[in-house]
């Protein structure tokens, strides 16, 4: 029955519905879409209707007039605005199908959920995909998808540890024999890093910046620890002076940004330490040999692997394509349903 469901349509897809970005993997085609998880809704005589999605909508964040509301429909890895999330999934489904087709797409969808999400939150994600036009929806936990995408031997009787740092959550999991032995989800990720940068600049530079500027700073000079020599790289940023309310420019150093990120990085390290303490001894010995694998956008933070390695005394590696691991892992399940179907589930 399961195999027949998967074989009904070549347009079946896996969706990594992330807080920061949404990636869509289509069966037989690979990752075909990678866009920000942002929706702009417009007020049309009291009814909010979709106006823009993805990259186009992200450019509108913090820049919209009163009648347009640009927002991220997901927060901490789960749906915060159901209508916007549903419209976004519907739009992305239609985007990856042939636009000239007269047949309404009804794909089977595998969609990722954080391991620490509640049944209610999982049900909301499942329903959003069903309402967006899916004929059948299966869920997969993010750390399992990330481990499969990173090429870890999840089906073998050996322990593998994955740390998936996304926009809203960090998922720490130990896997063996095709299942999750231990999982811990903390609501710290790229968004909390952005907030920490905004707070630091406000406190020490008397400058107010937006989320988009904070994200740019993190990507360009963000680091998990201070540079060994001096201030490190520099960046010029613009914002609003909190003293007199006028626009202003200041210079920021890599050292300052590393200082601003001490708290969120510390929370990720603490989550990893707790997971290691809760890992069965036999699997701990496997992790000593194979180390910890980092995935997700947060894994690209400069020197994070080094800081984590120093804190745990274990080898730490960043996956080859950290941003794509969850989507690639979900896609691999889509391509090999009989071999990996046990990692999928439905929320009743």
Write the topology of this structure.
Layout: H1 2-7, E1 13-17, E2 21-26, E3 30-36, E4 39-44, E5 47-53, H2 54-58, E6 68-71, E7 74-75, E8 78-79, H3 82-96, E9 108-113, H4 119-131, E10 136-141, H5 142-149, E11 160-165, E12 170-176, E13 179-186, H6 190-205, E14 207-208, H7 211-221, E15 234-241, E16 247-253, H8 254-260, H9 262-277, H10 281-290, E17 292-295, H11 304-312, E18 316-318, H12 325-335, H13 337-340
Parallel strand pairs: 1-9, 9-10, 11-17, 17-18
Antiparallel strand pairs: 1-2, 2-3, 4-5, 4-6, 7-8, 11-12, 12-13, 14-15, 15-16
Would you kindly provide a written description of the structure presented here, covering whatever features stand out?
The structure is a single chain. With 348 residues, the protein is an alpha+beta fold. It is 38% helix and 28% strand. It has 13 helices and 18 strands. The protein has helices at residues 2-7, 54-58, 82-96, 119-131, 142-149, 190-205, 211-221, 254-260, 262-277, 281-290, 304-312, 325-335, 337-340; strands at residues 13-17, 21-26, 30-36, 39-44, 47-53, 68-71, 74-75, 78-79, 108-113, 136-141, 160-165, 170-176, 179-186, 207-208, 234-241, 247-253, 292-295, 316-318. The protein is flat and about 65 Å long.
């Amino acid at each position: 029955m399961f195999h027949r469901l998967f074989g009904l349509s070549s347009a079946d897809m896996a969706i990594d519905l992330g807080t920061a970005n949404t990636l869509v993997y289509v069966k037989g085609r690979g990752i075909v879409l990678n866009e920000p998880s942002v929706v702009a809704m417009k007020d049309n005589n009291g009814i909010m209707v979709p106006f823009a999605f993805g990259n186009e909508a992200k450019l509108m964040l913090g820049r919209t007039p009163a009648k347009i509301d640009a927002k991220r429909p997901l927060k901490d890895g789960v749906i915060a605005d159901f209508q916007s999330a549903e419209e976004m999934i519907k739009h992305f489904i239609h985007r990856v199908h042939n636009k000239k087709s007269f047949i309404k797409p009804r794909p089977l969808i595998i969609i990722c959920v954080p391991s620490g999400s509640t049944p209610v939150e999982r049900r909301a994600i499942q329903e959003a995909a069903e309402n967006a036009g899916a004929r059948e929806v299966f869920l997969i936990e993010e750390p399992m998808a990330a481990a499969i995408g990173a090429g870890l031997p999840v089906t073998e009787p050996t322990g593998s540890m994955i740390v998936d740092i996304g926009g809203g959550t960090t998922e720490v999991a130990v896997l063996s024999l095709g299942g999750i032995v231990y999982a811990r989800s903390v609501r710290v990720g790229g968004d909390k890093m952005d907030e920490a940068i905004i707070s630091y600049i406000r406190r020490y530079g008397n400058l107010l910046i937006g989320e988009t500027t904070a994200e740019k700073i993190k990507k360009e000079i963000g680091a998990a620890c201070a540079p060994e020599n001096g201030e490190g790289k520099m960046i010029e940023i613009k914002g609003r002076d909190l003293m007199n309310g006028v626009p202003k420019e200041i210079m920021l150093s890599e050292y300052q940004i590393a200082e601003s990120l001490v708290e969120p990085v510390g929370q990720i390290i603490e989550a990893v330490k707790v997971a290691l303490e809760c890992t069965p001894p036999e699997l701990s010995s496997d992790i000593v040999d194979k180390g910890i694998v980092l995935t997700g956008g947060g894994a690209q933070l400069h020197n994070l692997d080094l800081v984590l390695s120093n804190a745990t005394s274990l080898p730490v590696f960043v996956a080859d394509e950290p941003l794509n691991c969850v989507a690639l892992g979900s896609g691999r399940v889509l391509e090999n349903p009989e071999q990996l179907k046990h990692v999928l589930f439905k929320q009743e």
